[in-house]
Amino acid sequence: MAIVSVKNISKSYWRDSLEIPVLRNISFEVPEGEFLGLMGPSGSGKTTLLNLIAGIDQPTRGTITVANTDVTRLNESQLAKWRAQNIGFVFQFYNLLPVLTAFENVELPLLLSKLSKKERREHVEFSLKVVGLEDRMRHYPKQLSGGQEQRVAIARAIVTDPTILIADEPTGDLDKTSALEILDLLEQLNKEFKKTIIIVTHDPRAAEKAHIIKQLDKGELT
Amino acid sequence: MRILKLILKNLLRHKLRTLLTILGITIAVAAFGLLRTVVTAWYAGVEASSVNRLITRHSVSFIFPLPLAYRDRIIKLDGVERVTFANWFSGVYKDKKQFFARMAVDAETFFDVYPDLLVPKDQLEAFKRDRSGCIIGNQIAERYNLKIGDVMPIEGDIYPGRWEFTVRGIYTPRDKITDPSNMLFQWQYLDERVREEWPGRAGVIGWYIIQINDPEKTAIISTQIDQYFKNSPAETKTETERAFTLSFMAMFSAVITSMNVISFVIIGIILLVLGNTMIMAARERIHEYAVLRTLGFSTSHLITLIAGESLTIAILGGVIGIALTFPMAQGFEAAMPKGWFPIFNVENITLILASSAAILVGVLASVFPIQRTLNTKIVDGLRQIG
Question: What CATH number corresponds to the domain at position A120?
Answer without folding.
Answer: 3.40.50.300
